[in-house]
Design brief:
It holds the Pfam family Semialdhyde_dh. This protein is an alpha/beta fold and about 375 residues long. The protein folds into two domains: about 170 residues, Rossmann fold, CATH 3.40.50.720; about 180 residues, Dihydrodipicolinate Reductase, domain 2, CATH 3.30.360.10. Helices cover about 30% and strands about 20% of the residues. The protein contains twelve helices and 14 strands. The strands form two sheets. A seven-stranded parallel beta sheet has the order 3-2-1-4-5-7-6, with helices on one face. Strands 9-10-8-11-14-13-12 form a seven-stranded mixed beta sheet. A hairpin with a 4-residue loop joins strand 13 and strand 14. Helix 1 crosses helix 12 and helix 7 packs parallel to helix 9. The longest helix has 16 residues. It is globular, with a radius of gyration of 20 Å. The chain binds NADPH dihydro-nicotinamide-adenine-dinucleotide phosphate and N-acetyl-L-glutamyl 5-phosphate.
């Protein structure tokens, strides 16, 4: 069986990566490609690497063009996609169609309208099923509840890329009750090295080569990044206590086109630091969630052998995440790392996994499971 898929925001980075994967998906036929200012141009002008789609004409983003497809992937600026998804739903109701809608933007991720208002400010568009199949729910040691939800939904919100890296790094320790997230515990701290493509393709002075090459640039410092409530939301789903609400999050732009390396530290419980082998205790929880090195487990999340560290280079171009956890006896903390490609596991691969689950086909169909090196 095949399904038609349209991509809105096709000329952007996230839309382009979704198309790269869809073009190789055996059960997807690519339909309308839409955008805004670039409507009327050919896709090859924007994505010369997408050879099979180079001659396709970019259309305006209009609900009537999108709603006739089986699947619509939206990769639009946040705030824009909420309006477009509402228009597609209205058009689909009128036409008697029921497209699977997958939004790569932030508009449908947050379940708390107040968190949306505090960090985004535009009208709240409502929460959809969260497109992270590996998200652990409280009480789970391997992920199944989120997969079940995605298999039964027609509306999917793809996670933010920084959120994905932090959540995958830390959630096994939360779900196993090994991290101290009690109300008075020290804050969880996340510092991320992030690549430029996370900021989208539009021209920004701080992203020109003259400003960015050879320089590391922190941004959204001091509790202001809009991904903070989304990370907290995930950690609470995984079973965190209210202390997880005091997440200290600092992203730093570094000179690479793609990639995120998240380093997350959190205090461990007394059960961990009083144990004979805290490292083994921590690693066991991560291995249970994802599978240990060389073992079966999550197909796209790899716990590395002890003492080896995730790198962005090893996951570039793929849908993989690599993770590691170490015990810091001086800080009485777990140091947890995760590397992803922001456009891979951070966007398009997560969208494709969710699409596959919702259509009832094997979850990793079309997802790239090997990196590119050097
Ligand atoms: N880049 C990343 O790593 C990640 C991005 N995302 C999310 O994906 C979405 C897209 O991001 P990204 O690809 O980086 O952004 P880009 O700026 O690269 O692309 C934006 C796309 O949206 C189109 N567009 C802009 N405004 C409108 C509008 N009002 N109506 C219709 N189309 C519009 C643009 O068309 P045109 O070229 O014609 O202007 C372009 O195709 C965002 O919500 C982003 O937050 C999520 C995770 C990671
Ligand atoms: C480098 C850079 O600017 N990165 C973006 C992350 C983009 C992302 O995750 O997308 P959403 O907008 O869909 O949440 C940021 O930090 O805001």
């Amino acid at each position: 069986m095949t399904w038609t898929a349209a991509v809105a925001g096709a000329t952007g980075y996230a839309g382009g990566e979704a198309l790269r994967l869809l073009a190789a998906h055996p059960q997807i036929e690519i339909g309308a490609l839409t955008a805004a200012s670039s409507a009327g141009t050919q896709l090859g002008q924007h994505h010369p690497h997408l050879a099979s789609l180079a001659g396709r004409t970019v259309e305006p983003t209009e609900a009537v063009r999108l709603a006739r497809h089986d699947v619509v992937i939206l990769a639009l600026p946040h705030g824009a996609s909420g309006e477009v998804t509402a228009a597609i739903e209205a058009e689909a109701r009128a036409a008697g169609t029921d497209p699977l809608l997958i939004d790569c933007g932030a508009d449908h991720r947050l379940t708390d309208p107040q968190a949306w208002a505090a960090f985004y400010g535009s009208d709240y568009a409502g929460a959809w099923s969260y497109g992270m199949p590996e998200l652990l729910h409280a009480g789970e040691r391997t992920a199944s509840a989120q997969r079940a939800e995605l298999a039964a939904t027609r509306r999917i919100a793809v996670p933010g890329c920084n959120v994905t890296a932090v959540t995958l790094a830390a959630q096994p320790g939360i779900a196993a009750g090994l991290l101290d997230t009690s109300p008075d515990a020290p804050a969880i701290t996340a510092v991320l090295a992030v690549g430029y493509s996370g900021a989208g393709k539009s021209l920004k002075p701080h992203l020109t080569a003259a400003e960015a090459l050879g320089s590391a640039q922190p941004y959204a410092v001091g509790g202001t990044h809009r991904h903070i409530p989304e990370i907290t939301q995930n950690l609470l789903v995984a079973g965190a206590g209210s202390g997880a609400g005091r997440l200290a999050f600092t992203p730093v732009l570094v000179p690479m086109s793609r990639g995120i390396l998240a380093t997350v530290t959190a205090p461990v419980t007394s059960a961990v630091h009083d144990s004979d082998d805290p490292t083994a205790m921590l690693r066991q929880a991560w291995a249970q969630a994802y599978g240990g090195p060389g073992e079966d487990g999550e197909a796209l999340i790899h716990l590395l052998p002890q003492g080896t560290w995730p790198t962005t280079g090893a996951v570039a171009g793929s849908g993989l995440a690599t993770v590691q956890v170490a015990y810091d006896p001086v800080a009485r903390a777990a140091t947890m790392l995760c590397a992803i490609d922001n456009l891979g596991k951070g966007t398009a691969s997560a969208a494709l996994q969710s699409l596959n689950l919702a259509l009832g086909i094997p979850e990793t169909t079309g997802v790239i499971t090997e990196g590119v090196a050097p």
